[in-house]
Amino acid sequence: MDPRATVAAVWKDESARIVAALTRLVRDVGLAEDLAQDALLAALEEWPVKGVPANPGGWLMLTAKHRAIDRLRRDDRLRANLAELGRAAEQQQLQQPDEPDDTGIDDDVLRLIFIACHPVLSREASVALTLRMIGGLTTAEIARAFLVPEPTIGQRISRAKRTLGDRKIPFEVPPPEERTTRLAAVLETIYLIFNEGYAATAGDDWMRPALVNEAVRLGRMLAALAPTEPEVHGLVALMELHASRMAARLGPAGEPVPLLRQDRDRWDQELIRSGFASLLRAQRDNPGPYVLQAAIAASHAQATQADDTDWVRIVGLYELLVRQTPTAVVELNRAVAVAMAFGPERGLAIVDGLAESLRDYHLLPAVRGDLLRRLGRDAEARAEFARAARLARNAKERDVLLARAAM
CA angle, corner 154, sides to 75 and 210, nearest 5? Predict the structure, then answer.
């Protein structure tokens, strides 16, 4: 494999842990990301010449930490951090091995998410910052997730880093009684990381399994920290149930396979059982958005074949979800369920009402094309699929849409 391609692949998998570890060292999110980028540049320079190291992820982490320590030693403002870290390490050696962490969080990545979701930042800025640092998403990918212009996201991220630095936000997790105020942003961040792994916004790969696995890992850890929070268990259930379909979501050539055409024998039954168990832990009166989405995913998992899907129940769940999360994307998903339960005409009426709010979202013309084809309006359907392909930024998804436009 080309060394530069190896660098890119390892960076995708390891960057979140590297940035999180560096933030613990230098106590500055922006500086941590800069130092991580320095290590990345060093790998791009050295690996093509000296060869890929036996442990490439470890090489990146060690190089980044060395650069961080050098920076701490050079910078008068940061020398106190280095001394503090030395005292902390000495104290840690005196602790009993089984002495618990008083925060309940011993994972740098999850710590960093909580810190980036500090109340001094807006929720939008917190989520954008953590998606950039933890999810490894580009500014363009984050903008796509939020359906806002790319410069807007760039400004949010820059301001968020500057605010955390100017306010000297410490690298510490809030006590349990204060975590609730950050929980919504933390959940949203983990969910968006999962979504990017489940259906990559751009690039040549339809899925990024490492991101899916990381999001599920973080969600389960969060559930252990907040066992009485229904939405945490709801998010875990949602991710586990969706992740159960991963093996069936790709065809022989790596092309995306729609839900209704997937071979359900390839769904991961262990993940489905785990998802059902998580959903049971989340059950309360007045379920929240993640619990409702998990219930929708559970309805699909309960159907042994696509024709057995209880679409009427799913429509009812979407109607509850729309009341709590009245977004255009949720409405689009509801339109699909309505079309399956009550016919494409009714679904198309909902979709047409979203034309302005989702004008640059490729799934709107994709759904519209599907409904038009079911109504026998093939010429219009082909035009919609072609428009969806022009808007799509994922190569695999674009190929599927172009094939449908040619039918």
Answer: 85
pLDDT digits (tens, 9 = 90+) for 105-158: 557 888 888 888 888 888 888 888 888 887 777 888 788 777 788 999 999 999
Q: What is the DSSP string of 182-226?
A: HHHHHHHHHHHHHHHHHS-SEES-S--HHHHHHHHHHHHHHHHH-
Integer CA distances (angstroms), 2 to 9, 136, 202, in order: 11, 21, 21
* DSSP per-residue codes, 35-55: HHHHHHHHHHHHHHHH---SS
Contact call for residues 145 and 138 (beta carbons, < 8 A)? no
**Strands 202-203 and 393-394, bridge-based pairing:** parallel
Burial letters 329-338, b for 16+ CB under 10 A, else e: ebbbbbbbbb
Q: What is the DSSP string of 241-284?
A: HHHTTGGGSB-TTS-B--GGGS-GGGS-HHHHHHHHHHHHHH--
- The tokens for 279 are 């959903």
Query: DSSP assignment, residue 307?
Result: G
**pTM as predicted:** 0.81
Tell which residue, 228, 225, 218, 268, has the closest CA to residue 245.
268
